[in-house]
Amino acid sequence: MVDPFAVPLPDPTPQLRALRAALTRLAGCALPGPARVALAEAQMALSALESLHSGTVDRSVFDALMAMAGPEVAPELVAQMAADLRAVRVALAVALDGMDWAGIRSQTHVLVALAGSAGARGLEQGSQALNLAAHETDALRVRALGPGILTGLDGLIRFVEAAGSGGAAVK
Question: Measured between alpha carbons, how far is residue 134 from residues 18, 20, 101, 129 in Å?
Answer without folding.
Answer: 21, 16, 5, 9
